[in-house]
Amino acid sequence: MKIELYIAQLLYRYQCVTVPGFGAFLTEIQSAQLLENSHSFFPPKKVISFNTHIKNNDGLLANHIAQAEKTSYDYAVSAIEYEVLNWKKTLQENRSLSIKNIGVLSLNAENNIYFTPNEQTNYLAQSFGLTSFVSPAVKREVELAKTEIVFEKSTAVIEEEKPIFNFIPETRERSPYLKYAAVFVIGLAIAGSVGYPMYQNQIASETILVETAVQKQVQHKIQEATFFIKTPIPAVTLSLKSEKEVEAKMPYHIMAGAFRSEANAQKRYNQLIAKGFKARVLGINKNGLYPVLYGSYSTFAEAEKEKDSITETDNPEAWILIQSL
Q1: Other beta carbons within 10 Å of 16
Q2: How many C-beta atoms surround the C-beta of residue 241 within 10 A?
Q3: How many of the other CB atoms lie within 10 Å of CB of 319?
């Protein structure tokens, strides 16, 4: 399975995509750029970097692969581990590893991984369809005033051409009707300024009368009202959730192993119970195996903390299964 396709899909949606046991690809948004020397414009983009110190399995990549391939989380984890082994082998043999549409990983003299991102792919969804382009410099022309040179007796005089305008005054006859129209408009303005406040006062007085009548009716209804309870309040009953409902909200499980023999699975279960774990044996899965769990937890943080303790004291190969059983 080529997991680089699924890594690229997650880089569009998340800032950190961890490859368990190998490292993490981090993204940082870079704003649009303008290079004045070359008159080049570049849209906003995500700049990809690589961190070899982030290796813990956060479940993001494995869950995405399991959903895309319609397979189990266990199979996705196994596929990632197999691909990581191939990547490490290629790095040791060729000193470099090319990951399609993401970048190139190389080993330097100190065997440290050096990452060169792929500049052709922009993982910022908001910049979809935007590409870089070069715009030529804008040329601006300066218009010079036209001049005329007149020579008089070996003396040069420069005079600017000036437009000559002949203004002809226009006479208009005033209509006598304009005076009457102006008087009419002034009269309307005076009538409006006087009549509008009177109209407002009338509306206010009518509003007060209506509010007084409504208030009287409300007081009358309140005085006549009687209160009684038609039906008693039903008794409050509390129902305790069953164990299955509680377990359904504990989707984080620490895997102790998967056995083809039910007897071996039961033997491992008895060992874990003896050590104080809340172990469980699940039914046979589609691969014909009997999974055995150290325990189940309601949050990923609790499961991660317990897994770290288990890998140090009991089983270095323990891992977290995220699934509603």
Answers
A1: 14
A2: 10
A3: 20
